[in-house]
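Are you able to produce any protein sequence you like plus the matching backbone structure tokens because I've never seen that pairing?
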Amino acid sequence: MRTVITRTGPLIALAIFLIGTAVASAALLAGPWGAAAPPPQDLLTAPDDPAMLVGERTAFRDEQGASVSLQDFRGKVVVLNFWATWCPPCVREMPSLDQLQAKLGGPAFEVVAVSTDRGAMDALRAFYDEHDIEHLDLYQDPGMAFARAVGVKGLPTTYILDHDGTVLGTHTGYADWQYPELLDWFRARIAAVPGVALR
């Protein structure tokens, strides 16, 4: 009996450790905006300078190769997301961002997902098709000049901009953008855009 206990004891301890590690990892992967999350304004990191997003005039490009900058989105509440196809949390997040655009996108709101991949735009289009991303426009920053100007240090990184370009907050890492209180918070920002009716 003692021999059995001696051999199985470490195995039991190892099993408990592995289970604990798996649970902790799952909690981290779930991100901060889960079902029991506090209000989004408590989770968004306040920007250093809310009056100006550094790099707002730095160009990135759309699917046709035309230059685009944040100035082109003035008048809209913007969810500016930096991502890449090789980034697992980014890949996991993209369908949620796509649904966010489907629900709220319009004259006063847009999700601007900017890929930092260096590959061809055709590869990004293939990624969208493979993952059923139907509502997001394709944008790319292959040299990461825009990402660096903004101050991105990891992926995914998201900036929330008000209609006048004010940075309302930032978030680094995966987030579930379908959290109901977050959607209500976005709707309140959209309703505050001058001259645009909330749909």
About this structure: Confidence is low (pLDDT under 50) at residues 1-39. Residues 81 and 113 are 5 Å apart (CA to CA). The chain has two domains: 1-30, 37-191.
